[in-house]
Design goal:
This protein is α/β, with parallel strands linked by helices and 269 residues long. It has 11 helices and 8 strands. Helix 1 links the parallel strand 3 and strand 4. Helix 2 crosses helix 3.
Length: 269
């Protein structure tokens, strides 16, 4: 376990195991690198595995501003440079899927492949008014608003109740301005990488293989139309909640492990 100074922030990360390709795990909104405890022991047996807390989250430092996906990706690019571990397989959940994709677009030499887990992009544009209303509630009471939002939309009857309890308690520990600014940046009306109008074109700039795993078949089908690399694929685990890798860890680990092994030597499109 260690810290790295990258630009204006200090990032907490863990770096375990050996083996290629290195795998870098990126958590989602209001979360931290503990999200990957179902994966880290498994993959560190055969790979070098890095898990990072994004700026403002977990044990990383908490700046006043700059909580957008491209800045998160720039932070991680600097961390990869510090560790000398690139190119990596970037595995991201939710917001982390947006960040992993931004890393692949903005810093392509550092990313061999992307695994995007129920990512926070390709959100229908018609959702903008509703989401704008939610964002307006992200003030000093951001914790309650985010708990209500995620608590009602991220779980199914099959989701373990202990996961929801853990997730809700963790949200309570995130500084309110981090919740607010991260949400506002992700769903910015004109620069958002979340809404389909922007993310659809942006995602096609990923030149590396992508494995996208969704809970909703229609979202997986949409991403499948945007995948440009021949080794890419999009799949759906219908009936699962938002934290797919925690609800179905053995299956997730097996699918990701097999897909990474199938990549072999990187190819170009």
């Amino acid at each position: 376990m260690a810290f790295a100074d990258v630009g204006d922030v200090r990032l907490f990360f863990t770096d375990e195991g050996t083996g290629d390709p290195p795998i870098l795990f990126i958590h989602g909104y209001s979360c931290d690198s503990h999200d990957w405890m179902w994966q880290l022991p498994h993959f560190s047996e055969t790979h070098r595995v890095i898990a990072v807390d994004l700026r403002g989250h977990g044990r990383s430092s908490v700046p006043d501003k700059n909580f957008d996906a491209r800045t998160f990706a720039d932070d991680i690019a600097r961390l990869i440079g510090e560790l000398g571990c690139g190119p990596v397989v970037a595995v991201g959940h939710s917001l982390g899927g947006v960040v992993a994709s931004a890393l692949a677009v903005e810093h392509p030499s550092l990313v061999q492949a992307v695994v995007s887990v129920d990512p926070g992009y390709l959100i229908p544009d018609e959702f903008q008014p509703m989401i704008k209303g939610v964002l307006e509630g992200l003030d000093d009471d951001s914790v309650t608003t985010v708990q209500e939002l995620l608590g009602t939309s991220s779980y199914t009857p099959a989701s373990p109740t202990y996961l929801k309890s853990w997730h809700m308690r963790r949200i309570a520990g995130v500084p309110p301005h981090v919740l607010r600014e991260t949400g506002v940046a992700l769903f910015h009306e004109t620069e958002s990488l979340a809404y389909r109008a922007v993310s659809e074109k942006y995602l096609q700039r990923r030149g590396c293989p992508v494995l996208a795993i969704y809970a909703a078949p229609d979202r997986a089908a949409l991403e499948a139309t945007l995948l440009t690399h021949p080794r890419s694929e999009a799949i759906a685990w219908e009936g699962s909640g938002h934290w797919l890798h925690q609800e179905r860890p053995d299956e997730f680990n097996s699918v990701v492990e097999s897909w990474i092994a199938s990549l072999g030597t990187p190819t170009t499109t």
